[in-house]
């Protein structure tokens, strides 16, 4: 009988005692003991952080005898460590993973409740407290203390426990940044940051009662005053080598798991879907997805179907033109070069700081880094989507954006392809008026809407078209080129032009210049190379919410002034030879005007 899978389990003791399947990461304990006094470990959600913190709690906790939990694990062979550390330390363990609220008042209540539970658990120290200390202790337990006492409570508890046991304390804090992310999402960030910062700062900075502290989370937010003055802080992120194989599954661990459960699988498919992470140079698989793959016995987007994606979706939707363009490149399998700021600042997300956004994407597991370089005191990384599961998330996010904003690209293009240019124009203008604010929350950058539309095309039309945007074509660069996979269909070129008041007489003139640019720079060559000669060219000029559209479907719009004169003379019955001499056009060219462009 095979061991049960630990789906939904993050308590180490119950997992071992129930003889569930466990990938042995116990040597993390040895590395933690041999590392710095205060450790901050950041990894994406569902990569084993809570389970590891739970394992260390049961290993160090002086109030328990847990030798039986570790006898069959790798750490048990480290006899010196077992003798000196197994259940030999007072432990303060607190998790913030459930501190989620859309308002400050409730978040404050959740935090004080968690601290009250912590004090209640260690109520045994009450007997060695002074009368004054007992008063504060009771206030924390009864949730009646003021903020200053809450801010100092973890440090105070470490002092009491050190006095009680005669040993310095190990502090384990799980998902420390959950309330910070919640505060950012729901608009009370500035109010919560000082409380959280002081709570951690007092517990970790110059705390003489502290043996070691380990904090886990998704992001490193050291610039937010949380770790100000904590000089003994050592950090492990996805960018460095510390603990790089202790979170997530290595290739060998995945192979061992699949073999144990006798699961037949295509190695390439598993790699494509769940591999791709780079933790400090080690190739890592998503553990949550692998466990669910074994349980369900089929490939699927397991990690992406869990909660925690809202912020990423919001940043894609509201992102700058550059963010949207780069998301398009990422979906198309390309790498993007960007600056990564390890000291993540949530406040910078409000400023559309691209470095902050890419840092969050990377640390949250939505990107992987492939290489880095340092130049002029700036470190840049090349990043890409790690695997098919995450790519599926990006694709679905863009499709949801189109759905939520009522954009029906296929319907609009159908009108374009059958020659209903006026209907297409009316639809597009209506779309712009009604959905511009969806992509541009500030109302000041309509380019976000148009680039969001391009991003939507790159996802929504990829089954029927090869989509190219901002690529070299002919003699220049076109915004969108749609090359039909069915060669009997029509190719489409769309050029977006922002109205320039200094260069363009009117918005219509700007649109005409866009069409002229398509012709002069021979954008159609890209489509003709695929054997498609029937091509629709559209130029869309915009000024905020005002839009003008010109296309080669419009009567006479592509004719030069000389060609228009020739047409007029033809209408008046003037001889072709005379028209040729007058307009300097060849007779052949004039004959074409009579056959192809007759009104």
Show the helix and strand layout.
Blueprint: H1 12-17, H2 27-34, E1 38-42, H3 49-60, H4 67-70, H5 79-85, E2 91-95, H6 104-121, H7 131-142, H8 147-151, H9 153-165, E3 169-174, H10 178-186, H11 189-204, E4 210-217, E5 233-236, H12 251-260, H13 267-274, E6 277-279, E7 282-284, H14 287-296, H15 310-318, H16 321-331, E8 336-339, H17 354-363, E9 368-375, E10 378-384, H18 388-404, H19 409-417, H20 421-439, H21 447-460, E11 465-473, E12 476-484, E13 491-498, H22 507-520, H23 525-528, E14 535-543, E15 546-551, H24 561-571, H25 576-583, H26 587-596
Parallel strand pairs: 1-4, 1-5, 2-3, 3-4, 13-14
Antiparallel strand pairs: 6-7, 8-10, 9-10, 11-12, 12-13, 14-15
Helix pairs in contact: 6-7, 9-11, 10-11, 16-21, 18-21, 19-20, 24-25
What is the helix tally? 26
State the shape.
Answer: elongated
Alpha-beta classification = alpha/beta
CATH class of the largest domain, named Alpha Beta
Helix content: 40-55%
The strand line-up of the biggest sheet is 2-3-4-1-5
Oligomeric form: single chain
Number of domains: 5
- Main sheet specs: 5 strands, parallel
Bin the strand percentage: 15-25%
Rg of Cα set: 31 Å
- Low-confidence regions: none
Task: Note the gap between the termini.
Answer: 82 Å
The CATH architecture assignment of the largest domain turns out to be 3-Layer(aba) Sandwich
Mean pLDDT: 89
In total, the number of strands is 15
CATH fold annotation of the largest domain: Rossmann fold
């Amino acid at each position: 009988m095979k061991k049960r899978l630990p789906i939904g389990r993050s308590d180490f003791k119950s997992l071992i005692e129930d003889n569930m399947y466990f990938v042995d990461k116990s040597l993390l304990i040895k590395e933690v003991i041999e590392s710095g006094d205060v450790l901050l470990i950041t990894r994406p959600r569902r990569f084993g952080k809570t389970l590891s913190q739970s394992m260390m709690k049961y290993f160090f906790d002086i109030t328990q005898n847990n030798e039986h939990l570790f006898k069959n694990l790798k750490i048990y062979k480290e006899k010196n460590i077992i003798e000196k550390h197994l259940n030999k330390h007072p432990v303060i363990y607190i998790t913030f993973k459930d501190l989620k609220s859309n308002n400050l008042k409730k978040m404050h209540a959740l935090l004080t409740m968690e601290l009250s539970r912590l004090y209640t658990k260690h109520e045994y120290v009450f007997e060695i407290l002074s009368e004054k200390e007992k008063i504060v202790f009771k206030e924390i337990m009864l949730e009646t203390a003021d903020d200053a006492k809450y801010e100092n409570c973890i440090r105070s508890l470490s002092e009491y426990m050190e006095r009680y046991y005669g040993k310095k304390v190990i502090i384990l804090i799980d998902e420390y940044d959950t309330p910070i992310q919640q505060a950012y999402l729901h608009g009370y960030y500035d109010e919560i940051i000082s409380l959280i910062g002081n709570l951690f700062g007092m517990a970790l900075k110059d705390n003489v009662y502290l043996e070691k502290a380990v904090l886990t989370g998704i992001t490193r937010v050291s610039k937010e005053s949380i770790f100000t003055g904590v000089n003994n802080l050592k950090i492990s992120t996805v960018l460095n080598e510390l603990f790089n194989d202790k979170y997530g599954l290595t290739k060998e661990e995945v192979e061992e798991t699949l073999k144990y459960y006798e699961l037949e699988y295509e190695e390439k498919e598993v790699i494509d879907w769940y591999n791709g992470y780079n933790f400090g140079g080690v190739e890592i698989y998503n553990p949550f997805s692998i466990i669910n793959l074994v349980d369900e016995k089929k490939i699927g987007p397991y990690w992406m179907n869990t909660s925690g994606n809202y912020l990423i979706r919001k940043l894609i939707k509201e992102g700058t033109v550059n963010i949207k363009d780069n998301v398009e490149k990422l979906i198309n399998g390309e790498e993007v070069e960007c600056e990564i700021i390890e000291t993540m600042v949530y406040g910078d997300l409000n400023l559309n700081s691209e470095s902050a956004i890419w840092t969050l994407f990377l640390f949250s597991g939505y990107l992987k880094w492939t290489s880095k370089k340092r130049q002029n005191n700036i470190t840049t990384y090349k990043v890409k989507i790690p695997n098919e599961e995450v790519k599926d998330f990006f694709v679905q996010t863009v499709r949801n954006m189109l759905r939520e904003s009522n954009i029906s690209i296929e319907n609009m293009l159908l009108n374009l392809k059958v020659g209903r240019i006026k209907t297409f124009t009316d639809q597009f203008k209506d779309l712009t008026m009604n959905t511009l604010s969806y992509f541009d929350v500030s109302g000041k950058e309509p380019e976000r809407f148009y680039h969001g539309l391009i991003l939507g095309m790159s996802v929504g039309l990829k089954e029927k078209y090869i989509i190219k945007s901002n690529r070299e074509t002919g003699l220049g660069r076109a915004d969108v080129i749609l090359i039909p996979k069915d060669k009997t269909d029509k190719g489409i070129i769309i050029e977006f032009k922002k109205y320039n008041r200094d260069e363009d007489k009117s918005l219509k003139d700007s649109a005409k210049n866009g069409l002229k640019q398509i012709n002069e720079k021979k954008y159609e060559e890209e489509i003709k190379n695929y054997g498609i000669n029937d091509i629709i060219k559209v130029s869309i000029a915009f000024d905020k919410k005002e839009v003008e559209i010109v296309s080669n479907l419009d009567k006479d719009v592509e004719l030069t002034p000389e060609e228009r004169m020739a047409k007029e003379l033809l209408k008046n019955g003037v001889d072709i030879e005379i028209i040729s001499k007058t307009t300097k056009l060849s007779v052949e060219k004039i004959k074409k005007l009579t056959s192809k462009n007759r009104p």
